[in-house]
Amino acid sequence: MRKSLTPEQKAAREERKAKFKDLWKQVADMPEAERLQLSARLGIVTPDGHALSVHNQCLVSFQRQTATVVGGFRQWLKQGRCVKKGEHGMMIWVPIRSKVAPETEEPEEPESETESKPTGTRFIIGTVFDIAQTEEKTDAPIGSAGAIDLENVVFAAVPAVESPAPVVVPAAPATVVPLVPASRPAWRRAA
Q: Which of these, 161, 172, 156, 179, lies nearest to 35 by C-alpha position?
């Protein structure tokens, strides 16, 4: 059973939603070419090497200009890293698939016309942290299966995109963080 939220927690949740709504309006108001150019320049990925969507990359860049590799709290734990105490995450859109009947069966018909169940994909607000907001877990030895090996990582090639309007993007950080692992695990290699 879920705990009920205190009035302070409810107010903080509504404030967070309002802040995210303002950020989303900024991204939505950007011209498509500008969003694509910003996304191509940043190349923000997850710890698994998957690129974020164009819109999520823009959202992350508005919240933390130096972000390079972002992941959720549990993603970082699986990679042998933990989020530093006191760090605040960045908000992004996270797709959630609605529950549907197995593919072999027909979807259940609602008992009445007013009782329709939504199916497909919807989005919720999720929180991610940059690799700079994490630290190596002390209980996981370096080079363990879950740890990120920063020495054997290469950069992802990001294509250049021209924009009809000038785009102002902050300078890249002095330290460079690798983005994509050089080798993939055996189970992810192409056959």
A: 161
